[in-house]
Amino acid sequence: MSVIALVPAFNESERITATVRSAMEIAGVDRVLVVDDASSDDTSARARAAGAEVLTLPSNLGKGAALDAGLAYVAQDADILLLLDGDLAETAFEGESLLAPVVSGEADMTIATFPHPVGKAGFGLVKGLARFGIARLGGGFLAEAPLSGQRALSRTAWTRVTPFAFGYGVEVALTIRALRSGLTILEVPTTMSHAATGRDLSGFMHRGRQFAHVLRALIRLAFERTPTRD
Ligand SMILES: Nc1nc2c(ncn2[C@@H]2O[C@H](COP(=O)(O)OP(=O)(O)O)[C@@H](O)[C@H]2O)c(=O)[nH]1
Ligand SMILES: [Mg+2]
Prior knowledge:
- The structure is a single chain.
- The protein is an alpha/beta fold.
- Helix content is 40%, strand content 16%.
- It has one domain: Spore Coat Polysaccharide Biosynthesis Protein SpsA, Chain A.
- It has 8 helices and 7 strands.
- α2 links the parallel β2 (29-36) and β3.
- α5 runs parallel beside α7 (170-180) and α5 (125-137) packs parallel to α8.
- The protein is globular, with a radius of gyration of 16 Å.
- Magnesium ion (MG) binds at residues 85, 87, 194-195.
């Protein structure tokens, strides 16, 4: 059974080396593919030096399109997809705990939950919108980590829930489509951490963009035909 880690990365020069090395150490992971979305730093070079395969996109297309490009690149060879953000650094290793329930068939998609941040990172608006949207459009499912991009998906799951949604709408769309397809989702507690944004201008801009992308995904999903269960 082939497990391929897909790592979207945009200007992750500081953390990508540790992320790649840690992902490669996960038992069962066969390939690690970093999709560098036209970073202006040396993310691609560092990812390659750390041992990953690297797909470098010619212009910045956003997280969802980058994941689509990565998936197209590995689809023939992939049974289980392990999605790991590029900014997890050493904690990417905890992606290991996402695999077992999918390998055993206990779950079609696992999602890593993170410990609550010590200092308040944001105001929880994006998370609140994502959680509300998933509950509303996904039959009442209350997601502990609605925005977590750290997931493992069986082949059945990823063929049903892709293509990925635009930008940062990826996660809510994965969860809602999985629920609508009757797939089993399991949230797995981890102690992963990432480069959380703070309450400065770039943090607000980042969350504003995320909010817009999540809302866009929810509006599209509200009109998307629900796949029939088989
Ligand atoms: N390929 C690609 N990855 C992106 C882009 N924007 C963010 N990412 C990556 O997606 C992951 C999550 O983004 P991040 O900014 O950390 O968002 P957050 O963790 O949800 O606050 C990280 O690995 C980023 O490097 C993008 O435009 N393209
Ligand atoms: Mg992050």
